[in-house]
Write a structure and sequence with these properties.
The complex is a heterodimer of chains A (about 325) and B (about 290). Chain A contains 7 helices and 18 strands. With about 325 residues, chain A is an alpha+beta fold. Chain A has an 8-stranded mixed β-sheet with strand order 9-8-5-6-7-3-2-17. Chain A starts with a helix and ends with a helix. Chain B is built from no helices and 22 strands. In chain B, the strands form 6 sheets. In chain B, strands 3, 4, 7, 8, 9, 10, 11, 12, 13, 18, 19 and 22 form a 12-stranded antiparallel β-sheet that branches. In chain B, strands 1-2 form a two-stranded antiparallel ribbon. In chain B, a hairpin with a 2-residue loop joins β1 and β2. Classes of the chains: A alpha+beta (about 325), B mainly beta (about 290). At the A-B interface, α2, β1, β4, β14 and α5 of A face β15, β16, β17 and β21 of B.
Chain lengths: ~325, ~290
């Protein structure tokens, strides 16, 4: 028996090696998305727009960038300035219509009064400080490359809040710091909350001039089936911060139309939530732009209150 | 036929008509029938490795699936050879599919994530079989299409169903080498299953930074690569006894080590895709013992 085994030992060795090779065979590899073969010659949209008009008097802003195909020619730019220099789109004409009144926008780079440090390519701001109107339809008209794109949003009035806990329910506040989730899932009302303060800082290290800069964070209060809330909170991004007790904070609550809520949930589904339980059917996020442009134009009513950081901790 | 759910009754007459014309070695037939089905399968290809199929019953919101089926076929049996050609057309009502961004897990309100519409399936199947002699073979080819037409789901009128796999070829050969030893080889080819791949992206500013929002064409517009493989097996039948019959088979699955991707997982941030595949050349040893 032993002799027989010895006689066939090379064959056994070959068989065992073969089985080991088969078992250890690679089962996955990384490819560039651009290497995936697709069926048709789909044309990407020409522009991506993100614009918001709010009910506060300010220079209203609309950002236009260019969508890109998955190829190695599109650089991944993490620096904001470089990013907008590359992806920002100049040469658009923008008009906002509210109740038959037209307001013109110009690119921020050429705006005489818009703060210098906020200027960037592809960011268009209203010529004058204007504000949106509640219970009105807001129509944004963009002319770019001889095409006219339209988007409409109806500004619904925001419900006032009386205590901070009404809007900061996604926030956990202890004696010295605030921890909050970027999304407060399962809320009964859908809205954005912005928590901000303004400080004077040196923007340019070569200059001694101080600029008033607003530091902000906001989160999205969102309606979801209760059964999903517990799991989803685990994947919601968290931020914790502490501050000087006398720092004056502004808490702003923004109204969100049904379509804007749908848009935001869709964006989250396709991006941050994509690797989680929320992973859903892949599909284009909705847009309220015509002619195949992507992005969203929103009209939001704002209700705001101010409080010091100390008060915020106490009153919650 | 009637189906009931929560006291709601759905009635449907299911007529069946068949015309068969028999010749000496062949047969020509035409069939028409209407079929209804109280359970429907929901498929999607959003997940890796599985299509996550779920059976859902009819409900006040989901009516039973009804299909009008037209079939025409010709079969031939002659001198150990048989062949078949069949064409079919199905017109389906109340076909269901998920809406965009349907939440599929742990969602008790799954019906709210579904829309109904119509579907059309058509195709042709051709097969040839040799049943006698030391060499037996089966060759079959089918061209089959399934297209959905469900409003509120796609920007175009019709789109491919998750199981729209147009081409399917199977070739199977069995060679008896001796009275105990035989060899079996099977080659399979199918078109890649439908998928929705991102074509590009745009940026969206979130509180924590910019995210890349993928841009797609239309649902199921793309396909995974074609699937094919060759399997070979040798079977040795031992000398039988009164009570038992036993055999030993040695087979190799995917002989030429074809890399068949199972799923793509996209990472839009880094613009890469992880391809999971099965490319084993997998040997197998099978011993079969049968009691008479």
């Amino acid at each position: 028996m032993l002799k027989k085994i010895q006689k066939h030992s090379i064959k056994f060795l070959v068989l065992i090696s073969f089985l080991i090779c088969a078992a250890c065979s690679k089962t996955s590899e990384i490819m560039n998305i651009s290497d995936i073969v697709t069926n048709d010659s789909y044309q990407l949209p020409e522009i991506a727009v993100h614009g918001t008009v709010i009910s506060e008097l300010k220079y209203q802003e609309v950002q236009i960038t260019k969508p890109h195909a998955y190829n190695n020619l599109s650089p991944l730019l993490y620096n904001d300035s470089l990013f907008y220099d590359y992806y920002g789109l100049s040469g658009a004409e923008i008009i906002l219509k509210i109740n038959n009144t037209e307001y013109e926008f110009i690119e921020s780079l050429y705006h005489p009064y818009y703060p210098h440090y906020k200027k960037r390519k592809g960011l268009y701001v209203s010529k004058d400080k204007i504000k949106g109107m509640i219970d009105s339809e807001h129509l944004l008209q963009i002319t770019y490359n001889n095409k006219i794109y339209f988007a409409r949003d109806y500004m619904i009035p925001v419900k006032a809040f009386h205590s901070y806990s009404e809007v900061l329910s996604g926030i956990v506040i202890d004696s010295s710091s605030i921890k909050y989730f970027n999304t407060n899932l399962g809320a009964t009302e859908c809205f954005f909350v912005e928590l901000s303060y303004t400080d004077s800082i040196h923007i340019d290290t070569s200059s001694s001039q101080l600029y008033d800069v607003t530091f902000w964070n906001y989160f999205f209060s969102i309606q979801l089936p209760p059964v999903l809330v517990e799991e989803s909170n685990k994947i919601s991004l968290q931020t914790r911060f502490s501050d000087k007790p006398d720092r004056l904070y502004t808490i702003k609550k923004y109204s969100v139309s049904n379509l804007y809520q749908k848009y935001t949930i869709s964006v989250l589904s396709e991006t941050i939530w994509n690797k989680s339980l929320f992973r859903s059917m892949p599909s284009n996020v909705p847009t309220n732009f015509s002619k195949g442009a992507v992005g969203f134009f929103a009209a939001c009513d704002v209700y705001s209150k101010q409080a010091t950081f100390k008060t915020l901790l106490q009153k919650h | 036929m009637n189906h009931s759910f929560l006291g709601i009754l759905f009635y449907r007459i299911e007529p069946r008509i068949s015309l068969i014309y028999k010749l000496q070695h062949s047969e020509f037939s035409i069939h028409y029938n209407i079929l209804s089905q109280a359970m429907q399968i929901l498929s999607n290809n959003a997940y890796a490795y599985t299509t996550l199929e779920t059976w859902i019953p009819m409900s006040p919101n989901i009516k039973p699936l009804v299909s009008n089926n037209y079939t025409c076929s010709y079969t031939l049996n002659y001198n150990g050879f048989s062949g078949m050609v069949e064409g079919y057309l199905k017109k389906i009502k109340n076909q269901v599919d998920y809406v965009d961004y349907a939440q599929l897990f742990s969602n008790p309100f799954i019906e709210s994530e579904i829309r109904t519409g119509s579907a059309k399936a058509y195709g042709i199947e051709i097969s040839f079989q040799k049943n006698q002699g030391n060499t037996k073979c089966l060759i079959s080819y089918s061209y089959a299409r399934v297209l959905y037409s469900i409003s509120q789901i796609n920007s175009i009128d019709t789109y491919r169903a998750p199981y729209d796999i147009p081409h399917d070829i199977k070739i199977q050969i069995n060679q008896e080498i001796t009275s105990r030893l035989s060899c079996n080889a099977m080659w399979i080819f199918t078109s890649g299953r439908p998928a929705t791949f991102p074509r590009g992206y745009y940026y969206y500013q979130t509180p924590t930074g910019k995210v890349e929002v993928p841009i797609y064409s239309v649902r199921n517009a793309d396909s995974y690569p074609n699937y094919h493989r060759l399997d070979i097996a040798f079977r040795y039948g031992f000398k039988g006894r009164k009570m038992i019959e036993h055999s030993l088979s040695l087979g190799v699955f995917n002989v030429y080590g074809r890399v068949n991707p199972l799923s793509y997982t996209f990472n839009n941030e880094q613009q890469i895709v992880t391809v999971t595949y099965f490319n084993f050349v997998l040997p197998s040893l099978t011993y079969v013992l049968k009691f008479k």
